[in-house]
Protein 1
Amino acid sequence: MPDLSQIVKAYDVRGVVPDQWDEPLAELFGAAFARVTEANAIVTGHDMRPSSPGLSRAFARGAAALGVDVTEIGLCSTDELYFASGHLGLPGAMFTASHNPAQYNGIKMCRAGAAPVGQDTGLAEIRSLVEGWAADGAPEPAARPGTITQQDVLADYAAHLRSLVDLTAIRPLKVVVDAGNGMGGHTVPTVFDGLPLDLDALYFELDGTFPHHEANPLDPKNIVDLQARVRETGADIGLAFDGDADRCFVVDERGEPVSPSAITALVAARELAKHPGGTIIHNCITSWSVPEVVKENGGTPVRTRVGHSFIKAEMARSGAIFGGEHSAHYYFRDFWNADTGMLAALHVLAALGGQDGPLSELVEQYDRYAASGEINSTVADQTARAEAVRAAYEGREGVTLDELDGLTVTAADWWFNLRPSNTEPLLRLNVEARDTETADRVRDEVLALVRA
């Protein structure tokens, strides 16, 4: 039996197929998911990876064997699966490895209404059941097996998103979209259909081998083609989706990347215009500009840990209307507190098309500081290197430390966050400052300690 500790991560299942997991194991996961959620029915979907249909169907068989009815929505983006979970009121499972290489696959699971399943909300219990059944035999099947049926929800998903953002009166925009051969190629044409958008489609063919580039737009090398096409065609904006199309990355009319923090601030301002006085969630790595813009627009910013299970839990607790992360995950109360890059993209298009200036000018008000971006360092001992950084700054005049998520050190003109990876021997550094010179100095100082 494979080591489940290697594939059951903090929020999902993810590993190499079939070396680390396969269809028989997926069947056990389906049974465990049915048992833990105590559901009479569930919904499943999958991305375009070659292994996804087989794994998804095996999961459905496992759940059906325990008497649970399964609705398969087939090819979909992760946020489309979240829509189905919310719209149908069912727990859901999405088969995808997001932006990871082609040989990987995984399962993102949620309870009814797209509520997250993480280590403390069911995933550990699912893992325990799977380990037990893999060792001792599959669970006893139900007297009456569940049904497995198919349902297409793409049109309903698109209609719901478009009901939340009105783009009918915007000026015509030329939009380049790089789907990276991922699920954006499936969802974008339906969502954009009939809108005043001249769509230039780049790599919309669904291909889970990713023949053109990895479907991870946060890596600069993967948006080079998008940037070039925007510049060549004089487009107003470029959008890049990751493999399962739940994240969206934006470039302006010059082909320059727009910070996800700036997008978070822009969308927050728009959501606060609809819901005055609302609460906005941001993680501890988003820019200072996010809470500033929230306060300027009459909202209440709430800082939380990185990761969708923490964001969604805090949104539910606080009744927040919106949340954003530095990784281009955007969460909406009107979307069952789930993350949807597509809805964020529609907000940006509405803001851009609702005025006459270029995107670069529009986002200037939301992009106020110099940032390093996330810098990863491979280390032999995460704890020791992080402690060395702490020792260097603890007690320094004018500096505060907190441990909401990793180590955050804040001064008057700069801050940095240093976090350990949960899955790799890495420390992740993010630095922001009021000017580039200061950001570079702090970055170099911290990296010297981390890499000593």
Protein 2
Amino acid sequence: MSGIPLGVLDLVPVPSGSTAAEALAHSIDLARRTEEFGYARYWFAEHHLNPGVAGTSPAVVLALTASATSTIRIGSGAVQLGHRTALSTVEEFGLIDALHPGRLDLGLGRSAGPPQRRRPAEGAGGGGGGPPAPPEPVVPATPVVDGRTPNGLRIPDRFSFAHLLGHPRVALQQKLLNLPGAQPQDYSEQVDDVLALLRGEYRTPEGVEAHAVPGEGADVQVWILGSSGGVSAEAAGRNGLRFAANYHVSPATVLEAAEGYRAAFKPSAELDRPYVTVSADVVVAEDDATARELATGYAPWVRSIRTAEGAIPYPTPAEARALPWSEEDGKLVADRVETQFVGSPRTVADHLERLRDATGADELLITTITHGHADRVRSYRLLAEEWQRRG
């Protein structure tokens, strides 16, 4: 498939006029269909308090999808570790792996919360009396001039979520997801605990062992998802894990994320070199004009997320055009709209090849949302056919 595999990232979107039950049925059907089309893996994201997104529990949806498919790898993109424990995560995925061994990807991500500290880099002072050496700054290997890489990939200005700090809906989500008084564990430490439990090597400082059954010894691929070259990229590199860089969430920082991971990478029993998948928002139709029409609802849908309203049910093109829209709204979603790949199979495949080449991706992860299920299935089919033709 044009040199590298394509995967699917599914948020289980709920179209306007539809229900969560229908959205789940459509997602399971899409997993079956993309398996037929030749996609390599199918991941479910985790989101909460979003009326237009039904993917609240990747493990539950994965268990259902595993029974409806047979060969495609399935996984989480990603489990949000900020409001769960390492043990509960390993046990959940261990249950699925026990029934469907060898097909599971455990994607780990951070949820919204306070900034996490970076681990100091190992250096001259790491084992002696001096302070550890600071981490080397990450300089993306691909230059960006006037918002584009040399091959034309759009890299917009960095988006700031400062306007959501202290927002009551953000605070409400944190309240409902966390037990009263609970403090999230340091993310890097939590990743270490997940790996130790999977390997059967978990020990307390006092030497007490813990064994997750099922879970210990599960044949799962562990991935880290990240939007920058910070804590997540470092945790993936330090542990020699696979890494997913989020162009579709944070296009401004995708190069930093990929390069930060590679800079931190250390070979492991799992991998001898860095391995990266990069996500992209995509809508494909028979021609550019039809695809643009199908993508009309994307801007107001992103606006609903970035105002903390919560993702609205995905609107029809007519509903989207009828919604009020301001210049400020346009600025709020500009980076996402500019980096959504919309068009004919040829147009979108050209964009994806630029993304592949600029980031050095080993795989690409495709997320597509349209109001109609048939349009969504067709988008994935047309892209797969074009990608295979180029391969």
